[in-house]
Design a protein that fits this description.
Layout: H1 8-33, H2 44-99, H3 107-127, E1 139-143, E2 151-155, H4 163-166, H5 176-229, H6 233-264
Antiparallel strand pairs: 1-2
Helix pairs in contact: 1-6, 2-3, 2-5
């Protein structure tokens, strides 16, 4: 039907022009931001899933830092334990020297160094936090994230290495018999120290394994987030070219549609 009041063709062209301009604007927004989802309206369900992945990635990233801090602390402790092992070696050397009846020197001199070493052993045990009741002489919980079981436990509750815990306090080597007793105590201490070193090493290994898993999860979550949130540049560039051409065509078509009522006037001539 031909009508002066309603130009249906122009209305259709105008509606198509509006949709094409919206699509063109969306393609430009996605290309300039790099994201397919720039507002909740773009993909509400997808945004919710992508946000969960991004949140999990943030948690795991800090969890990896927590674990690496724990590994560094374990390495510091392990270095201190190695030094305590050296102290026990020296104490055993002194005790062995004093334990023989053929020793003709002054055992008090040997014992003075021996007692000094016991004091140094206690000082170092305190400094690395593994004296009895020390800051690390407990079950340490390291939060990693990545699931329902989000923490790694490092049990150092039985890893105290002060002289009392190792069983070398109170002894002396001022006589051959006392020195022999001290040798037995030191041998026990070396075994106890080995247990502590094993606990520290096991905890460090557990943290390394946790870091490997967390890094793998970070990669997977980041990839999943990217698949949902990020724009496909090739697709959006193609969409931009298509919508620009359609917008130009819509403008030309709208101009033609607006001129149609003028053509109807010829029927009245």
């Amino acid at each position: 039907m031909v009508s002066f009041q309603t130009n249906v063709t122009a209305l259709v062209a105008e509606n198509n022009l509006s949709m094409n301009q919206q699509a063109e604007s969306q393609a430009i927004t996605r290309l300039t931001s790099g994201y397919r989802i720039n507002s909740s309206g773009d993909d509400a369900a997808g945004l919710s899933v992508a946000n969960k992945y991004r949140s999990d990635t943030a948690e795991l990233t800090q969890g990896v830092q927590n674990a690496n801090d724990g590994i560094s602390q374990s390495q510091i402790v392990d270095g201190g334990l190695n030094n305590i092992s050296n102290i026990l070696d020296r104490m055993k050397t002194l005790a062995t020297e004093s334990a023989t009846d053929t020793f003709t020197g002054d055992r008090n001199i040997l014992d003075n160094e021996y007692q000094t070493l016991i004091g140094e052993l206690d000082r170092q045990a305190t400094n690395i936090g593994l004296n009895s009741g020390g800051s690390l002489n407990k079950v340490l919980s390291v939060y990693i994230g990545g699931g329902s079981d989000a923490t790694v436990s490092v049990d150092l509750s039985g890893a105290a290495v002060d002289s009392t815990s190792l069983g070398v306090n109170g002894g002396d080597i001022t006589s051959a018999s006392d020195a022999t007793t001290a040798i037995g105590a030191i041998e026990t201490a070396v075994g106890n120290l080995g247990i502590a070193q094993g606990a520290v090493g096991a905890g460090e290994n557990d943290l390394n394994y946790a870091v490997n898993l967390a890094n793998s999860q970070i990669s997977s979550y980041s990839a999943a987030d990217s698949a949902i949130r990020d724009a496909n540049v090739a697709t959006e560039a193609s969409n931009l070219s298509r919508t620009q051409a359609l917008s130009q065509a819509s403008v030309a078509a709208l101009a033609q549609a607006n001129s149609m009522p003028q053509t109807v006037l010829k029927l009245l001539q």
